[in-house]
Write a sequence for this structure.
């Protein structure tokens, strides 16, 4: 009798220890759902660390909870945020067309056919216009530089610099879209590629301009219309300073129409653009010469080599999405 009673107490004691062990184990290993066996999960407690809503940019949506823990020491989050901020800044409305024109020239086609682009249209001979340049000198270079200086601290993601005319030959031959139409140029412009490369020429046809158009150190050109070559050395020294030696040869497809990313513009301090505009306005050279010097300077200013002549088919594909083997 006494032995039987002792065995009963021993069995009861072992069973009690077993269930107590199982219960403690469940408390330690309970899954991360909202409730477990009637107990509230610790992930929803008020004093849990660094909770951020799944609507936050850091959050990762899961099927079981609307909150996640953020490791504040994880530096990869900063990289993700930087990438996302860049993608947020680069959106459909963050782009502008910059144009210089005379007061008699019509640019209404921009608003009519490219309404998704912002517009910065400078009148070069009327200081009462909404946007204007101080002097009518330097052709398109003057309004381009004026825009860069006035908007340096508030640039959109993509800036397209265009002439005032929409298209048609001979006035609009400076691009090689069908009918030389600048509307088609911008509608097909591959904005992600502009962001990737920083600068794109809006003309893929390499002639004139490539493979070499300018020889800054040539003493005398056989072509009397190339007097602007002799002005490159003093112009570049004023714009770039001594840190950028004047190249022996310069080549880029003409003709002063291009697109640039905000980040490529900001690679230079604003003083560089101010020096360029001051040189242009103070130079005793003609409107033609100052404009031509800048025409063959833009690509270097925006990060390309002095000779920048990409393959024409690569240009069509990368810049405009017109790739061989694909329908236009």
């Amino acid at each position: 009798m006494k032995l039987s009673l002792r065995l009963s107490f021993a069995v009861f004691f072992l069973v009690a220890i077993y269930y107590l062990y199982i219960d403690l184990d469940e408390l330690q290993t309970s899954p991360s759902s909202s409730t477990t066996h009637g107990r509230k999960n610790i992930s929803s407690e008020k004093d849990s660390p660094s909770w951020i809503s799944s609507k936050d940019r850091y959050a990762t949506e899961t099927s079981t909870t609307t909150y996640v823990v953020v490791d504040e020491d994880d530096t990869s989050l900063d990289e993700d945020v930087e990438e996302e901020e860049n993608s947020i800044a680069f959106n459909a409305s963050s782009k502008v067309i910059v144009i210089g024109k005379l007061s008699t020239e019509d640019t209404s086609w921009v608003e009519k056919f490219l309404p998704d682009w912002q517009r910065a249209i400078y009148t070069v001979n009327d200081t009462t216009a909404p946007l204007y340049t101080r002097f009518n000198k330097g052709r398109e270079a003057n309004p381009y530089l004026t825009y860069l200086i006035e908007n340096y601290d508030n640039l959109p993601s993509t800036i397209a610099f265009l002439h005032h005319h929409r298209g048609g030959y001979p006035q609009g031959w400076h691009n090689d879209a069908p009918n030389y139409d600048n509307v088609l140029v911008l509608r097909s412009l591959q904005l992600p590629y502009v962001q990737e490369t920083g600068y794109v020429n809006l003309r893929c046809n390499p002639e004139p301009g490539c493979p070499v158009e300018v020889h800054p150190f040539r003493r005398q050109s056989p072509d009397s219309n190339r007097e602007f070559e002799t002005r490159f050395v003093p112009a570049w020294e004023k714009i770039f300073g001594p840190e950028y030696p004047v190249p022996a040869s310069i080549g880029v497809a003409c003709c002063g129409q291009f697109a640039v990313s905000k980040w490529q513009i900001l690679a230079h301090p604003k003083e560089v653009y101010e020096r360029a505009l001051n040189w242009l306005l103070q130079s005793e050279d003609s409107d033609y010469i100052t404009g031509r010097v800048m025409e063959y300077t833009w690509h270097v200013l925006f990060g390309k080599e002095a000779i920048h002549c990409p393959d024409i088919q690569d240009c069509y594909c990368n810049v405009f999405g017109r790739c061989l083997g694909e329908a236009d």
Summary: Residues 2-29 form the longest helix (28 residues). Residues 1-5, 15-89 have pLDDT under 50 and may be disordered.
